[in-house]
Design a protein that fits this description.
heterodimer, A: disordered N terminus, B: 4 helices, 3 strands, 34% helix
Chain lengths: 259, 152
């Protein structure tokens, strides 16, 4: 057993040394390596902890949607390996309009908005912070009935059974929209005001007239304002609702450096 | 391109591009990839808006003439790679907008280009350079179209 592990490690080192894209393309390749097995375990755990799906029989007249594993090695700014990521995605091309999905549109912040936010914050001398939602799309709640096959490597005993999704998976046509609806309802519940011209900009005033501005870029939140207490309470309340990574002060946003 | 000489502007002033059916076509996919990469820079570089949007119009059948313009942009970038936008602290939040157009700059279809930039204080926040969808009959009309597209 020890011998096998060592061989795997050697294999990995060899790959990372000699190849720029050593990511495995198929489940069979990935399941041979320990890092990828762990990455897949992590993804399955996060899907299960999210209460995403339940095992049922496929009802007559429904089609199941295939799943696929995607593997990606994430590099940090220095080009070193930061982590191995495995993502379970649905094959959206099997979905039919009106059957498995209806509306798919979801708004994204424009660059103009983000620059304006930074410019205003700079003029006022405010600080700009950034938060990132982990596995954002898994939070989106599905309105439609979607059935998917059991994921490779994590099949339960009865292989004829399928999963009925309650929440979205990456790859589903409606996943971005489901996620936007979810986070929008959170902002509404927290008494944020939505900008009527830019649906990803949310503003909140407190009783002293202090302000908090939040801009949403899919799963990245950029926020600024003039009150530290509001920052903290916002961070607390959103972390209660979604698993977040606190990126602190805005440094690096979509390849654009902020100093 | 790594050892190229730097230039001080992204495009030669007054240079005109046309669709050249007779010239030999370049590799369109490579050209498109380059334009795509340059487009991404527009997130922080208003100075490139005009030149990048100009070459992007010829992605269908790029020729030597178009490739030369891209190369000049790359040479310009070499000298200005560190450029960015500075948002200064403690300035007045005052919004100013500018718009302009050039009349019939496209020799193929006689359409004009409109451009605008918005600033807060001294720093730009929003900008665009875009070929107008209609053929204007006068410079005034071209300016009017630009002003309209800038305000909505």
């Amino acid at each position: 057993m020890i011998g096998r592990e060592a061989e795997e490690d050697e294999l990995q080192n060899g790959l990372t040394l000699f190849s720029t894209s050593s990511d495995p393309g198929t489940f069979d390749e990935a399941s041979k390596m320990k890092v990828w097995r762990e990455a897949m375990k992590q993804e399955i755990d996060s899907i299960e902890s999210n209460n995403t799906s339940e095992l049922t029989n496929l009802p007559v007249g429904y089609k199941k949607i295939g799943l696929k594993w995607i593997y990606k090695t994430k590099l940090n700014v220095k080009g070193e390996i930061e982590k191995h990521k495995a993502r379970l995605v649905a094959k959206e091309y099997a979905q039919k309009l009106g059957v498995d999905y209806n509306e798919v549109f979801a708004p994204v912040a424009r660059w103009d908005t983000i620059r304006t936010l930074v410019a205003v914050a700079a003029c006022k001398g405010w600080k700009v912070y950034q938060l990132d939602v982990k596995s954002a799309f898994l939070h989106g709640e599905l309105i439609e009935d979607v059935y998917v096959e059991q994921p490779l490597g994590y099949k339960k005993e009865d292989t004829r059974k399928v999963y009925k999704l309650k929440k979205a998976l990456y790859g589903l046509r409606q996943a971005p929209r489901a996620w936007y609806n979810k986070i929008e309802s959170y902002f509404a519940q927290e008494n944020f005001e939505k900008c009527s011209h830019e649906h990803t900009l949310f503003v909140k005033y407190n009783s002293d007239g202090r302000i908090l501005i939040v801009s949403l870029y899919v799963d990245d939140l950029v926020y600024t304002g003039d009150d530290i207490e509001m920052f903290e309470s916002f961070k607390h309340s959103i972390q209660k609702n979604f698993a977040m990574t606190d990126l602190g002060k805005m440094r690096y946003f979509f390849g654009v450096e902020v100093k | 391109m790594e050892n190229c000489n730097m230039v001080c502007n992204p495009i030669v002033t007054g240079s005109k591009l046309v669709k050249d059916e007779n010239a030999k076509a370049n590799d369109a996919s490579k050209f498109k990839q380059m334009v795509d990469c340059l487009m991404y820079l527009l997130a922080t570089r208003p100075d490139l808006a005009y030149s990048v949007c100009l070459v992007a119009r010829y992605m269908e059948r790029p020729t030597k003439m178009h490739l030369e313009v891209i190369k000049r942009i790359l040479r310009y970038l070499k000298g200005t790679a560190s450029y960015g936008i500075l948002y200064k602290r403690g300035e007045e939040v005052k919004l100013t907008g500018w718009s302009d157009s050039d009349y019939a700059s496209d020799n193929d279809d006689r359409k004009s280009t409109s451009g605008y930039v918005f600033m807060i204080g001294e720093s730009a926040i929003a900008w665009s350079s875009k070929k107008q969808p209609i053929v204007p009959l006068s410079t005034t009309e071209a300016e009017y179209v630009a002003a309209a597209s800038c305000s909505c």
